[in-house]
Structures are given as C-alpha cells and as structure tokens.
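for the writeup, i need someone to sanity check this before i put it in the appendix. the sequnce is what the collaborator sent (i think, or maybe the updated version? ugh). structure was predicted straight from it, no edits. if anything looks off just tell me and ill rerun, i have time this weekend
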Amino acid sequence: MKSHSLLIQTALMLSALAACGQGTFIYDQSSATNQGFGGGYAFQQEQPFGQSFTPSLTSIRFVQMEFISGPSQLGGATVYVNLRADSISGPILSSTDPVFMPYPFAHGITNFFFPTPVVTTPGTTYYLQPVVQSGSSQWGLIGDAYRYQGGTLFWSGAPDPNGNDAWFREGTFVPEPSSGLLVLLGIAGMCAARRISASFNSSLL
C-alpha cells in the first residue's frame, strides 16, 4: 500500500514539474539574427499590419517579435499574433496565446506560442499579424531594411513601399524536461524496481 501511495505521489509531482522544463527554439525564418534598433510602426493603427514569410519547415510553434512603446504610452498592453494564409487579411490558421507587456517597456523581444504546432507547407507564403487585444494601442513594432528574402512588411494592407521588414523570428519549439523532473523519474524507476524485486522474492518463499 505504501509503495502504491508513493508511486501516485511521484506521478503527481512529475505532472506538476513537466510544465516547468526548459526548451529549445529551432529557428526557421527570421528577418534578423540580433536585436534590432530600427523604426517603430504603430501596428494597431496600421491594420491590416504584419509580416509575410516563407517557411522551410512543416510546422510553426512560436513567433518572436520586437516591440517598442511610444512616449505617449499610458499603460501596458496584451498582444497576440495571428497566423494568416493567402494574404495579410486572409483566413486565420491559428492565433498565439496572448502576452501581457507591462509599461514601462523601452523595447524588447517577446515570445509568442501557438497552443499547438500549426502545420505549414514549405515554400508557401504565410502572414504574421500582431494584434493588441486590450490595453494601450500605442505600441510599436520594430522594423527596418533587414532584406529578408522570403517576405516583406505590410501596413494598411499593402507591402511596405521601401521594402522594409518587421523584426521577427519563427520556428518550432522542443520542450526539455527540468532537472527536477529527471530526478523524480529516477526515483520512480527505483521504486518500481524495488516493488518488482519484492514481488519476485515473495514468490520464491
């Protein structure tokens, strides 16, 4: 009975720690490799606004974009990113979980995760559209002449006339177990081995 209870408690701890593990970003497409310092686009006022890209992988799990808050920013904002097909105003394939960015927020890169990996077709153009869900609409998205070959920036529904791109990265995400999870897996394995050994010894008596 004690062994059974210990195994149940271990399973509960494992499930609690599973969400705490780190992960590895696998980048597919990006307009820049380092943090940018280009101009800020007030994307909520310029909708349909976003960035087109052409993936080489068969799914997308995360998006990274760089934001800046203007001097007239009155508070934080909750933002999410739509993944659209066909055009910047085309059908929405999926939306990331919303992320709250508090004020003050000088500028920085924010991670957005889709609830589940979204299937993509390599070589097909898709569109990333950041949207303010709530809060201040004065947030800006960093963009510049990054010369990304697989797409371009769109604002007010049209390609940027200067050929600029939003700062972005996208790709897949591979979760990794936390160290605590690995330790508990070892404990669970030892408990199971002891229980099997005890059962085997009892059968010999």
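The CA atoms of residues 28 and 140 lie 24 Å apart. Residues 179-204 form the longest helix (26 residues).
thx in advance!!
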